[in-house]
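User: I've been trying to design a sequence by hand for this structure and keep getting stuck. Would you show me what you'd pick, starting by listing the structure so we're on the same page?

Assistant: Good idea, let's start from the same input. This is the structure you sent:
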């Protein structure tokens, strides 16, 4: 039997949901999920397992995430149910300025000209995040967390359909990136499903960081590799200094929390726009009886679409790096303000025009669209003591900047900045600046029941659609009573320009005419969907992965 067929059969044989009395993990690749379960079985904590999955995904899912990128982790302490978050978002180097993505004429560059090469690379944050999470919530020694990823990089792994598709999609530009070709091409073309990837350079770096700690990533030979890759890139070379790299810090930030019906929800604050926007959307919907309306009612989806458009309008105007701009988080989630936004929603007619409001404490600001490419990955771990780690990790677009340093891809996160630094004569909140972290849609979330104990954890991948994937999952689980797996599988909804975008081939697409009856322009279109979650049941935690993806859930 051909190797590619064996690989697919093995992937299909692993469940995308699992019930576990002890711990559970869920990730977008079965080999990463297995790495997390291995760590749990060694007595590791949820944070330990999440770190091991992040490292393994660096090897087997290089198109989506890795140690050359960054992420956000939200964590629940199983003893106290205290929630904490760590910001591992990448930072712009000291050479960056508000004009970073302007061309010679002072106009914003086309994204296609900006993402590949050195200009788009931010200083990676995932290793610093992992070190901070290990120090705060870990149980196993740091080197143990690296062993599954080292084995995968050293011994090799088979290319999956999703990786093969990504490799094929980028093949036209890879002649400019020979280091990437050397790892992922074979016989003059991208590797195909079932073929083996070995990455000895990455294995060697992982061994070094496992032995010497995170400082080995941010100094010495690895810093030299980052500087060389970005400065000598054939496309968009840039200046990243040793000081830029050595200065990187993962930041402990206060979780952003709100209530929705009888639940308490906590997520990631700025520079993520995830919690504020997801929670605004839910808050605007709280006055409607979504449970009674149900998932098969076009009116439910009309209401969701309206709240979505209003929430994203506020996102584009007010969100950015809180170390550089004043972000009115409390105002955006103020119950009276959210109620005023909800009052704009008619049960039977679309608003048509969706403008940002003025939340309490907001400074005058102009709205400007930011760009995020559909990429990223999410994973969840729960250990037998009730600790939960929910983490979203990314290198931005497929294979990030396309640049390789020591076997891993460097991110293109700086393209998440708004390219135009000013609008209507005023600075844009998410413009590029030295040392700044670009705005993100990553939305790792933990939900607590009325007893104060966690009942659900979720997150997703897919650029700016992440927010709506997570909002939909929460509505489907909390309002419609769907299991974690079925909540993830529920149809996705987003927007394209002035149109509501619905997932083709779904029950929602079948409602297109009814939605149009509410005044919406409705189109169908492919959306990236790659979510992972876990729910607490009467007999244990149930992990779940998106059936559209290669992801799986495994029990300890």
């Amino acid at each position: 039997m051909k190797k590619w067929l064996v690989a697919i059969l093995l992937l299909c044989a692993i469940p995308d949901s699992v019930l576990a009395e002890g711990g559970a993990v869920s990730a977008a690749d079965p080999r990463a999920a297995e790495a997390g379960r291995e760590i749990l079985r060694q007595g590791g904590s949820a944070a330990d397992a999440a770190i091991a999955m992040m490292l393994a995904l660096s090897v087997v899912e290089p198109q989506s995430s890795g140690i050359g990128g960054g992420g956000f982790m939200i964590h629940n302490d199983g003893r106290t149910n205290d929630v904490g978050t760590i910001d591992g978002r990448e930072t712009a180097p000291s050479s960056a300025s508000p004009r970073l993505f302007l061309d010679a004429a002072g106009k914003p560059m086309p994204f296609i000209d900006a993402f590949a090469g050195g200009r788009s690379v931010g200083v990676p944050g995932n290793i610093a995040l992992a070190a901070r999470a290990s120090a705060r919530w870990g149980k196993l020694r740091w080197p143990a967390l690296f062993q599954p990823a080292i084995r995968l990089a050293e011994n090799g792994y088979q290319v999956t359909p999703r990786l093969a598709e990504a490799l094929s999609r980028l093949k036209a530009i890879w002649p400019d990136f020979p280091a990437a070709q050397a790892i992922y091409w074979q016989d003059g073309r991208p590797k195909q499903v079932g073929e083996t990837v070995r990455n000895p350079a990455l294995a060697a770096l992982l061994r070094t960081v496992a032995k010497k700690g995170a400082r080995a990533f941010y100094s010495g030979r690895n810093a030299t590799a980052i500087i060389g890759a970005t400065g000598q890139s054939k496309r968009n070379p840039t200046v990243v200094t040793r000081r830029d790299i050595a200065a990187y810090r993962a930041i402990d930030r206060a979780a952003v929390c709100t209530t929705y019906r009888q639940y308490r929800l906590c997520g990631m604050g700025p520079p993520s726009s995830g919690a504020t926007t997801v929670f605004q959307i839910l808050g605007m919907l709280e006055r409607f009886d979504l449970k009674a309306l149900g998932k098969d009612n076009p009116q439910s989806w009309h209401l969701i679409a309206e709240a979505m458009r209003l929430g994203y309008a506020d996102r584009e105007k007010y969100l950015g790096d809180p170390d550089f701009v004043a972000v009115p988080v409390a105002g955006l989630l103020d119950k009276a303000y959210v109620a005023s936004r909800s009052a704009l929603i008619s049960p039977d007619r679309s608003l048509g025009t969706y403008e940002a409001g003025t939340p309490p404490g907001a400074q005058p600001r102009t709205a400007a669209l930011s760009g995020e490419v559909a990429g990223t990955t999410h994973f969840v771990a729960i250990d037998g003591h009730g600790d939960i780690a929910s983490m979203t990790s990314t290198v931005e677009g497929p294979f990030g900047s396309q640049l390789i340093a020591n076997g891993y891809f460097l991110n293109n996160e700086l393209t998440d900045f708004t390219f135009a630094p000013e609008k209507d004569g005023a600075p844009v909140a998410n413009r590029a600046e030295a040392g700044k972290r670009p705005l993100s849609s990553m939305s790792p979330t933990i939900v607590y029941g009325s007893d104060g104990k966690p009942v659900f954890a979720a997150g997703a991948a897919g650029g700016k659609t992440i927010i709506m994937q997570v909002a939909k999952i929460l509505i489907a689980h909390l309002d419609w009573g769907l299991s974690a797996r079925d909540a993830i599988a529920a149809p996705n909804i987003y927007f394209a320009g002035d149109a509501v975008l619905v997932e083709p081939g779904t029950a929602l697409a079948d409602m297109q005419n009814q939605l149009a009856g509410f005044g919406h322009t409705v189109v169908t279109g492919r959306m990236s969907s790659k979510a992972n979650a876990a729910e607490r049941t009467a007999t244990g935690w149930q992990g779940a992965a998106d059936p559209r993806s290669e992801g799986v859930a495994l029990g300890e």
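That's my pick for every position. To get oriented when you compare it with your attempt: The chain has two domains: 34-69+90-250+395-427, 253-348+441-555. The chain is about 35% helix and 20% strand.
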